């Protein structure tokens, strides 16, 4: 039951991760609520699942848990089986210890009487349900109750609390930093129930028992609420996983963004150093905008020396956007500017190292932290052509998940960015075609190298999150010895 958990890079071979399949709750969002719940539009849940997300699961199972999927793949998608293979509350669920569903872990902790009582009470208090509803919930069998606590839907189909449609973005609820687990503190109310569930799972599931003392929660000081409203908003701590990247064993990246506050980043630097989790913490301050709510929507890593990034944050892009302006006049006033500050343990926090451009930082990571022997290269969103760079960043061109070094999953709609991958010598292939090759044993996942795998994304991309956001890596092989 107990498993080793460790993540010390973004591209070491992925062995274990947490993902959540779109649940029924997503299908209940009405148009006027979509934005409040952080979706750009309503989605068709059946398409999102069977034409898009299920392919993601199959890919992950093929790469991480070959036996689980290979024999069962034809049965899994047989219409008669009603997708039960993908549903954690069904007998036929694939139940892998490598591709892990928080809903399943939740059902396991709900079997513990004391945890069940406390968790149901917490959720009911947060959602302001009646005492009667709380009692009713306590009588529901664990597997069904786990489903209800996530989707908000009771076994009889009635809805007792709002959906948490963003739970598919498991990245944001917690992050492994070496052998530590950092829990989030979401900026948006729409994501609050997710973090209550995550807290209970990480603190109570036997899978994380060895790591209990390594769970980090960042909170405001005890007397914080006594401050006046202005001070209060300045010192508020919010922190979401999309802004945290364990980029190398000695190095953590922290974004300051629409979602992660300056105060949170400041606390994190100190905690990381005090607890000896990493030696270097680099804070990347990006504009607080919906289009790039976390740093992982603006860049992710493909290989130790290859990155995909948003062109407007590149050296060329930033210079271009400032052309015609007097730099000193624009300077700090420019809300779109990027600030990169690096804090090293034992060195003076008042004189951090500064990087002017994102490429300088990423190059430094590739060469000095990850010991690349080749020059660092960049693929730009939309191949750096206007207006494609911005269009494709919006649909997560910069948000890829590395399954191993050089093999990443991205969305199929970002054509110009895919072109950029091809120009760097990468193979670009549709998920369905690759799965078909695996199925017919024409190709084994171990043989796949230097490839961008394209996931259908018409529905998925409406929520402003890509495959990087839809994954919480729990174990990656070390990239460097
Ligand atoms: N790591 C990420 N970039 N996650 C994207 C989350 C998208 C989600 N709809 C939200 O707004 O919260």
TrEMBL record:
Its EC number is 3.5.3.6. It catalyses: L-arginine + H2O = L-citrulline + NH4(+). It is an enzyme of class 3 (hydrolase). Keywords: Hydrolase. Belongs to the arginine deiminase family. PANTHER family: ARGININE DEIMINASE (PTHR47271:SF2). This is arginine deiminase. It comes from Algivirga pacifica.
């Amino acid at each position: 039951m107990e498993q080793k958990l460790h993540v010390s890079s973004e591209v070491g071979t992925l062995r274990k991760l947490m993902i959540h399949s779109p649940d029924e709750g997503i299908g209940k969002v009405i148009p006027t609520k979509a934005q409040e719940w952080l979706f750009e539009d309503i989605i068709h849940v059946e398409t999102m699942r069977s034409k898009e997300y299920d392919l993601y699961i199959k890919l992950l199972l093929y790469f991480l848990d070959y036996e689980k999927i290979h024999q069962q793949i034809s049965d899994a998608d047989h219409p008669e089986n009603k997708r039960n293979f993908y549903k954690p509350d069904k007998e036929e669920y694939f139940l892998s210890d490598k591709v892990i569903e928080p809903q399943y872990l939740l059902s396991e902790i709900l079997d513990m009487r004391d945890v069940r009582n406390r968790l149901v009470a917490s959720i009911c208090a947060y959602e302001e349900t009646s005492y009667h509803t709380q009692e009713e919930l306590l009588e529901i069998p664990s597997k069904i109750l786990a489903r209800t606590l996530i989707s908000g839907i009771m076994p009889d189909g009635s809805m007792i609390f709002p959906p948490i449609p963003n739970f598919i973005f498991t990245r944001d609820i917690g992050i492994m930093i070496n052998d530590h687990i950092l829990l989030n503190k979401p900026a948006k109310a729409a994501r609050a129930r997710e973090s209550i569930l995550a807290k209970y799972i990480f603190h109570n599931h036997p899978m994380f028992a060895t790591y209990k003392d390594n769970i980090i929660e960042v909170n405001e000081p005890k007397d914080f609420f006594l401050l006046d409203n202005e001070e209060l908003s300045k010192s508020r701590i919010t922190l979401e996983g999309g802004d945290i990247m364990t980029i190398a064993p000695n190095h953590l990246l922290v974004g300051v963004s629409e979602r992660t506050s300056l105060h949170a980043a400041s606390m994190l630097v100190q905690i990381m150093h005090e607890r000896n989790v990493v030696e270097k913490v680099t804070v990347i301050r990006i504009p607080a905008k919906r289009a790039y709510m976390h740093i992982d929507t603006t860049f992710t890593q493909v290989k130790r020396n290859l990155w995909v990034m948003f062109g407007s944050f590149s050296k060329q892009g930033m210079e271009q956007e400032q052309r015609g302006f007097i730099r000193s006049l624009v300077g700090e006033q420019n809300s779109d500017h990027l600030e990169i500050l690096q804090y090293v343990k034992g060195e003076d926090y008042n004189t951090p190292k500064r990087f002017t451009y994102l490429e300088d930082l990423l190059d430094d990571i590739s060469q000095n932290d990850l010991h690349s022997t080749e020059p660092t290269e960049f693929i730009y969103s939309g191949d750096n052509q206007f207006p494609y760079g911005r269009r494709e960043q919006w649909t997560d061109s910069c948000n890829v998940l590395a399954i191993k070094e050089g093999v990443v999953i991205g969305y199929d709609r970002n054509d110009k960015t895919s072109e950029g991958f091809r120009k760097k010598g990468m193979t670009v292939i549709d998920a369905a075609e690759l799965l078909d090759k695996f199925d017919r044993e024409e190709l084994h996942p171990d043989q796949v190298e230097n490839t961008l795998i394209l996931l259908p994304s018409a529905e998925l991309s409406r929520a402003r999150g890509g495959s990087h956001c839809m994954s919480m890596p729990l174990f990656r092989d070390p990239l460097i010895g």
